[in-house]
């Protein structure tokens, strides 16, 4: 994920918020709209509602409609035509993805003070003729909070994520190339704090979080419409954080700025939730009666 964060809010010609945080694709923003607005509403969403919101987020109409079509092709949403209009419901597959991802995002503010010092460790050697699986394997391990302090070695303090990693290894057929074990690392060799410094680029991550915190602190949307757009962008940024933040325990990473940012976002989300959902409901109701 790009760590570039805008210096401050930009405004389009209609006054809606655009690119407050890192620039995102239509697909990424659509996923956030589906999970943050459509799922809680429990109601189908009209195409025109999705296009309206994505346009307010700086996405051109053509790109918005393409993103919706691709979401349908991917089995994320199902269409129901009513006359000339189409409304969409979330697939069971997408609902499951949202619930799983939501738990990971919400854990960003958890100090993980229950950690007992044990690490889940993987040693994997991917053969040259299987090199095509490297990218999805490394991406999956990063999402699970693993660091890579030296080639072939991956570690995470989140031993509870072993089933997730097992599924990843099985899916990519890497079982015969992978060794795993759980244990402490402080008796022989590299110290835990050195594993942390080698396994993750926390300096760059800290700078990213500092910029995000500055943007979050400056958010003062002036209307319900602008609050909706700002809310979606903020939640979209929040949803990307588990991909780069290993969520290390307080014992390894005390006073981590990432937890501060997550708590601030959670607070604003709760503060804005009612007006955002009311405005979304108005937009969707209006689209359905046009």
TrEMBL record:
UniProt superkingdom: Bacteria
Domain Transcriptional repressor PaaX-like N-terminal: 25-93
GO biological process, one term: DNA-templated transcription
Chain ranges of the Transcriptional repressor PaaX-like central Cas2-like domain: 114-185
Residue ranges the record marks as coiled coil: none
One Pfam short name: PaaX
Residue ranges constituting the Transcriptional repressor PaaX-like C-terminal domain according to the UniProt record: 200-271
PANTHER family xref list: PHENYLACETIC ACID REGULATOR-RELATED TRANSCRIPTIONAL REPRESSOR, TRANSCRIPTIONAL REPRESSOR PAAX
Protein name in UniProt: PaaX family transcriptional regulator C-terminal domain-containing protein
The species this protein was found in: Rhodococcus erythropolis (Arthrobacter picolinophilus)
Source organism phylogeny: Bacteria, Bacillati, Actinomycetota, Actinomycetes, Mycobacteriales
